[in-house]
Description:
It is built from 12 helices and 12 strands. By secondary structure, it is an alpha/beta fold. Bound molecules: ligand C2E and magnesium ion (MG) (3 copies). The site of one magnesium ion (MG) has 4 residues, from loops.
Amino acid sequence: EAKGDGGAKYHIYHEEMYKKVALRVMMESEVRQALAKNQFSLSLQPQLEAKTKKLYGFEALLRWQHPERGMVSPEDFIPLLENSQYMVELGYWVIRRCFELCQTFIDKGLTDVRIAINLSAGQFADPHLTDYLIDLLAEFSLEANHFELELTEQTLVKNIDSAIEMMNGLRDIGFSFAIDDFGTGYSSLAYLKKMPVDVIKIDKSFVFGMLENRADYQIIMSTIAMVKKLGLLVIAEGVETSAQLRSLTENDCDIIQGYYFSKPIPETKLMEFIDTKIVNGYWKVSVL
Ligand code: C2E
Ligand code: MG
Ligand code: MG
Ligand code: MG
């Protein structure tokens, strides 16, 4: 009996593996075509200073408009492409697009805007990343302080010594670094101590229930206090309600990102969004 069970399990395991590999291979070839066919775009989600409602910046979020499958969520294809050369290629496409958008923002009068760019592990491990960024700065004549590079704890764990070296080099040029999804990975505290970062982004999973769940609330508030004592900036993502906003603001959270202010805005709607929602660099308060 035991043998039979093992065999069945082995079989299922094998099938799962096969499906995963097949899906990844399919994804890779689709991504290659999608890049050529311009099926990717970015949506940008505003980040606002909690106390003043000054625009801090926008996070760039990848969107894939697939001809048959519709809008494919990055959470459904980015993990599959991890460790693939196509993710690196796609990542470079994202970075270049962010530089173009930054130029557009500046032309629009948002002269101190920041764009947050998510970097995948493979992309961050790519030896050409630093040169690519330096070349883009020259090509666009833009200052590096317009760009914040987001890494996760999972990305950092892969090769901590070379990560630190690379981050120091890029920070010397003016790029800043954020740890994304903070609190969901491993060794958060060790990373806080070791990594040359500027910003901590508290993961939205803690924010969603922060006013109902005592543990989430305490984790958020002590994270904010700790991050600020270390002299770093703290962003809360996933802020959906005015009550969450109020509580985070009262407890000294620096920056707010979430549906309460805005969902990510497709590139095509971006200028209209800025015209209607941002005035002189501040979030427009609706006067009733
Ligand atoms: P992330 O970097 O943590 O981005 C924040 C995610 O939270 C985004 O999901 C955003 O739409 C969502 N979000 C923000 N505020 C709220 C809110 O108030 N409520 C809810 N329910 N969700 C909110 P999205 O756009 O689906 O992206 C998912 C993940 O995909 C990102 O998480 C990031 O890890 C990855 N990703 C997106 N774009 C890129 C990219 O260009 N490169 C890489 N490497 N990863 C990317
Ligand atoms: Mg992010
Ligand atoms: Mg995040
Ligand atoms: Mg995330």
